[in-house]
Amino acid sequence: MLRFSKKSDYGLIALKHIASQGEDNVVNAREISEKYNLPPDLLAKILQSLSKSGIIKSQFGSGGGYRMAKKPSEVTLKEIVQSIDGPVHLVGCSREDTDCSIEPQCTIKQMLLNVEQKLEAFFSTITLKDI
Amino acid sequence: MLRFSKKSDYGLIALKHIASQGEDNVVNAREISEKYNLPPDLLAKILQSLSKSGIIKSQFGSGGGYRMAKKPSEVTLKEIVQSIDGPVHLVGCSREDTDCSIEPQCTIKQMLLNVEQKLEAFFSTITLKDI
DNA sequence: TTTTAATCGGACTATATTAGTCTTAGAACT
DNA sequence: AGTTCTAAGACTAATATAGTCCGATTAAAA
């Protein structure tokens, strides 16, 4: 438990590949999925997420694909994982939507929020360049 | 994503409660589940795990229950979560049993293992006393 | 000695999350 | 126009988590 999703893994692999191709070369999804043996449709979804959050840029049409929208040194692990899997919520009740039945008696929320914050800070120190 | 399981949450709450009762007072599972509104059977399982891993001691029979087996300052968050949910494996392929289809081409494993290690180190710095 | 109040442990079910697929549409290049 | 891409949503499958049930065991208390 407490692990990154496969989607995050795939996303990291793909990003690393895209970054390795330089700033201007576009790489298409199929190419990546074949090279690393990743499920093509799923990878497509992941790249879309990364594109929406502005980490990569997409180029439509024939000969299209993806390229970096930022420098690798400016893309953090936190940012990547968040754009693929949503915010890091170490503790369920830190999400807005949840109504926790033990909330009134809960003795650990504050402390876990604190840990969560440190965790995010840690993930923010790691960039695609390090990967 | 990337959150502690509810079991871990419940375990932390229970542990904190047990620790608060002093070294020698036994607390039974029902008592805790009622006080914090936790599913009794599930909590029982969790306490069994904590007992097996030597964080708490169980006392059988009528009037039995649990008490701390260690000082709160000696029980780390890592230890607690691990005994409830198993080892922290940020990346699936760090487990022995998994055969990852992308392993040969995988470009991120080493780096993620590194992150995983730092994460564990971080969780090891937090003890029940801090909670 | 019997009853009672606990833990232990395994099997089981239900629910939620994650992973993956399919299909259609839209954009740009040739 | 045809081809090769991305976009996006609906859908299914697989897995992990959460929770329940029940019989066995232990030991204190009546």
Short key terms for the protein model shown above:
homodimer, 131 residues, mainly alpha, Arc Repressor Mutant, subunit A, two-stranded antiparallel ribbon, 5 helices, 2 strands, DNA-binding
Describe this structure in words.
The structure is a homodimer of 131-residue chains. In chain A, helix 1 (6-20) crosses helix 3 (40-52) and helix 1 packs across helix 4 (77-85). In chain A, strand 1 (56-59) and strand 2 form a beta hairpin. In chain A, 30% of the residues are buried. The model of chain A has no long low-confidence stretch (mean pLDDT 92). Chain A is built from 5 helices and 2 strands, in the order αααββαα. Chain A has 131 residues and is mainly alpha-helical. Chain A binds a DNA duplex (30 and 30 nucleotides) through helix 3.
Mean pLDDT score of chain A: 92
CATH fold-level topology of chain A: Arc Repressor Mutant, subunit A
Radius of gyration of chain A (Å): 17 Å
Oligomer: homodimer
In the CATH hierarchy, the architecture of chain A is Orthogonal Bundle
Q: Spans of chain A with pLDDT under 50 lasting ≥5 residues? A: none
Number of DSSP-assigned strands of chain A? 2
Query: How many angstroms separate the termini of chain A?
Result: 22 Å
Q: Most extensive interface: pair and counts?
A: A-B, 40 and 40 residues
The largest sheet of chain A, given as strand count, sense and whether it forms a barrel, is: 2 strands, antiparallel
Which structural class best describes the helix and strand composition of chain A? mainly alpha
Strand content of chain A is 5-15%
N-to-C SSE series of chain A?
Answer: HHHEEHH
CATH class of chain A: Mainly Alpha
Morphology call of chain A: elongated
